User: Fold these one by one.
Assistant:
Number 1:
Amino acid sequence: MFHCPARLHGPKQIFLLVFLLACAFPGTAFTSGDKTGILLVAFGTSVPEAATTLDHIRAAYEKAFPGCPVVMAYTSRIIRNKLDRGGIHVPSISEGLDQLAKNGALVVRVQSLHIMAGEEFAALARSLLLNIKGHPGRFRAVYLGRPLLESRADARAVARAVLGFHRKKGAAPEALILMGHGQEQGRADLIFEGARATFRENDPLVFMATVEGARTFDDMLKDLGQSHVKKVVLAPFMLVAGDHARNDLGGAEDDSWASRLKAAGYDVEIRLNGLGDVPGIDDIFIKHTKDSTDDLMLEPKKP
Ligand code: CO
């Protein structure tokens, strides 16, 4: 299904060899053997330590889709411009698609590295549609993989992975506080609440709130007060431990979550690990990439 000969665009001999190999193995239908390219799309980060998280995700994709070109694009223009000034060029969505086309990809699997389908995911889908419209016939199919939290099964898998990463067996009871992003318009608030409920079913000492969404730090603090724990562990519920994690969550300023919790008498530990650092999270994204059957170039299938 994911046919990614390494050098299909290379010398004719290699093409012939790949063709013969592809035909030699029954079940490897050459008709569906269009070269696939992967475009990973993240908001982006200008924090170098956080960028290594994204490098690991890219490496996991290269392993999961051997021979397929894998390109990572950032949607944030501010971050791309900032990195450009430092001599690091990260492609935008349209530059990423150009790179894959240049690499000979005819089928593109785009994977959203967003945590939930909020504003950023909607913008990604729109950018892709406009790009397809602007380059008719360039690709045979463009699939879009859904974000991390799409289903109850995803929420359970994410909770399992995150709790496995942060919780040590036999440790004294401590609260795990996770900072989600959220959005002022409320998009994704409900998905966030669903994820929070799933975490709480597994571990009542998990407390979740957002920087910009409906569930606030104050809501969380009230909730935390009922638990009578003294020790709290703080971690971002975002793909990488970028600016929000380093400033709004763990920063030294008086209004960071860490400072406010310390002021409220809690013993605070900050863990700067994004969700992308948690083993098993990349597998959920990869599953969404492989599961996507919705070709953006076709009308949605209707009964
Ligand atoms: Co933000």
Number 2:
Amino acid sequence: MKIIDHNYINGAFTPIRSHESLILKNPTTEEAIAQIYLSTPQAMNEAITCAAQTFETFSKTSIEERMQMLERLHDALSERESELIDLAVLEFGATITTTKRRTKNAIRLFLDIKDELQTYDFIKQDAFSITLKEGVGVIGVIIPWNANLAHLCGNIAPAIAMGCTLVIKPSELNALETQAFLECVHKAGIPKGVINVVQGTGEGVGEALTSHPLINAVSFIGSTKTGKRIFEKCAKSVKRMTLELGGKSPTVLLEDASFEKAIPHVLSSAFSNSGQACHAGSRLLVPKARLAETERLLLEAVARLRIGDPKEETTHIGPMITQTQFNTVQSYIQSGIDAKARLLCGGLGRAEGLTRGYFVKPTIFICEDEDLKIVQEEIFGPVLCVLTYENEAEAQRMANHTIFGLSAYVFSDDEQRALAFAKQIRSGRVLINTATSNAKTPPFGGMKQSGLGRMGGRYSMDAFSEIKSILF
Ligand code: NAD
């Protein structure tokens, strides 16, 4: 069993001075794989003080120097790409095919941001004024467990580009992947004090970060519930913020859509990351007249899904990350059953044929009531709710009937019709006729209670900047 008992502060692995620890289990086998020690607020304070001192010098480095750092980070991570993939599969249970794609994309971000740096508008000048974009300062980053590497890279790359320093609190559940990541950072030779990572819990060290006066901006990725708490904490010292929060995204099949083509995308969105994805299309809206056809196609598609060992290339759905997450999903399924939603497939208990591991059955409910708890709340497991609409106006109203607004999916054989519909959805992102896009660094973030601000490519650089005008 691996022991994680060091933070990364001021360019060195520093021992965690605490006896409190957590055992991490492989979610596929339920075997213990790591013990992580949990830091105290004192370690967080040391890291923040160091990042604040480093900002004084790091913010003055040249763009050329920062471009080289981004390239070095990319190269150091690329060297250990396959190990990073294996660790994500081991400790999170993410399927290998998804993890391969996500790891590559995460590492590539350093080169994408390096490209952005070459054309970024740091200075605008006219006869009477100069407008400057400067790094925001010390950025506190708090990360969830469901896409650890993507969020580490997605915050570090733009922060370095803008000459900012960072203090990161990753999820305690990704300790092994974070450790390997930090070894790569160390090898890349980034100046001491630019990237600092403190391991621990939200209550233990997260709160010490959001309430610290030397933190200038907070980039939080996590649940809406925690995001609201962090919002309140940060308000006290008016910290800059981006909040990337939860979702309950609609997938809308318009009347003219080819359902045969659409349903595989519907499931790949709903069950993305085994359902543990913020952007999962977990509410499916179909025309009432096509419900029977939808049910048949869904059942056929679910029968083709393979649930099991995430290391296998043929596996579509892996386990939930922890027993706690498994229990949470079970309680939502029970709530759907209690509320008399019709169970099309799946249900309570471990997925068939498996004797261990936190595997939830892919579950589909047909729901008449759009205000049910399972329709309105983020479940974060492979649970899809199907609802019907009478006409397009009703579909639009139902798509927007949620406190969230992170993502949405629209399917139609007429792209212009889908586009017109997409414009009516209150959501930070809408995908048309697909569940995954190859667009390069589009903005990402949510409307309504799905978040605040946008990340992604130069949008992250904007989020990590302050604007100053100098007037003549
Ligand atoms: P969470 O809110 O429970 O925890 C997120 C992080 O916040 C963890 O590191 C946790 O330790 C920390 N934290 C908890 N309480 C804190 C506090 N009081 N102060 C400071 N930090 C605190 O979320 P989770 O269960 O780890 O992740 C799942 C959630 O993340 C889902 O809601 C999902 O939709 C969301 N998410 C959103 C995005 C996005 O881009 N919008 C991406 C991934 C995940």
